[in-house]
Amino acid sequence: MTYCVGMVLDEGLIFASDSRTNAGVDHVATFRKMNVIAVAGERQIVLLNAGNLATTQSVVSLLKSRLSHDAANLYTVQSLYQAAELVGQTVREVIARDGDGQTQSQGVDYGCSFLVGGQIRGEAPRLFQVYPQGNFIEATPDTPYLQIGEAKYGKPILDRVIRHDTPLAQAIKCTLISFDSTIRSNLSVGLPIDLLWQQRDDFDFAPRHRVTEDDPYFLALRQGWGEGLRQVFGQLPDALWFKDGDGG
Description:
Strand content: 25-35%
Largest sheet: 5 strands, antiparallel
Distance between the termini: 45 Å
């Protein structure tokens, strides 16, 4: 399992992914789940992946190996919609090859999901979620973020904070708190976290940061968030109908 988040906001885009692919008593594996296809001054396309590791690696390898082909590729597509369409087609191709066209076959789950986002010169920043079947949806101003993988633990904080006009700095902070909540509740999600942010209409290579276990900002954020929650919780009133330690 994994956890990935993408956001498309007024100021630009944010992408974040953990790096744990398997968890157990005696086995924890780490793989990077963020890939960037960029042409300076013209486009930046970010891929985040969750699901079967062999499937996602094959999809990314095919997409990268075809960048020099004459056929449509992530260097030549004219829109992020076409990029999402290309990723969906490649997902279907790999599953057809390895899983006989089925996301589950002989007890093996070949399914995977992708977040595909970024900006191509001539259009606004966009963000898509590609499903294992190859179809996809797009984030909107009403729903400015998308998640794949183990999404449920980090979703409440995103729902309360993230709006289309949320500044990037605030959204980065909220994203990391969302990851901290998920890591605390699910062993299958873990550090390091790969984080990338992209300003609207900025086609220079987007800055990235890898959040490790000793990252001072993440540690301060984790401590401050925990203490703040406990403080606010302590200030909430007890139920008026609760008397003498029982509900009578």
